[in-house]
Amino acid sequence: MSTPRTSIAGQGRRPSRLGLAAAAGLLPSHRFARVVERNITVYRRTWVTLLSGFFEPVFYLLSIGIGIGELVGDVTVGGRTVDYRTFVAPGLLATSAMNGTFYDSTMNMYYKLTWAKIYDAVLATPVGVVDLALGEMGWSVLRATLYSGGFLGIMAGLGLVDSFWAIAALPGATLIGFTFAALGMAATSYMRSWNDLDLVTVPLIVQFLFSATFFPLDTYPRAVQFLVQATPLYHGVAMERAFIAGDISMDLVVHIAYLLALAAAGAAIASRRLGQLLTP
Asked: Domain extents for the chain?
């Protein structure tokens, strides 16, 4: 008489690569929200410091958009003639999203990584490397979205919004923030000292000044135009300008796809580098 054998599911099986990756924290999970929550808790007591990022683009709009706009007059872009402040405002909206992520994805990240060793403490919890990276990016993006939302409200109050498509400018600003947060963290992960911050700061300043933020693209020489069109902020500015004006075309799809591709690449590099720096 034979005795039936009872099989135990999974007994003797090797763990799958997916399971190993999840166990090592190399796959995203809901725990990234805990990292965002930590940052919110920290800034809850110093919320006044967040106001600077809101007022900066407003001051630029008042001084350059309205002040210099009285001297410049109208600007022709894509066959449309608009007054200068209407032209500048979407560019400042995109810049607000970019700058909103700068501090947390560069200087603050470097401090947490190399000096305060906060990331080492975070990884002592169930939070994984990818969760850590996404959580830090998520907080930067949240901060950028808050700045951009406030500035978009100022634009609407000044009558600088021409279309109901302007509603999409806020998710657009979120995408810009995510792109620069991912690229900023990826670049910062290669920094060796505080002096290397200049290597991150200078490209941001150059983009702010020359990514068709204050001047139409066709004012540049042809060779320079190609360089401008390679920058992520140019695509962010063009995207926001299209949303505000209601100019929906295939060019808008190109801008969004370009930013998504850079965001994905930056997030992947940042996650991999943090894994190399923080795990034995």
From this structure: 27-278
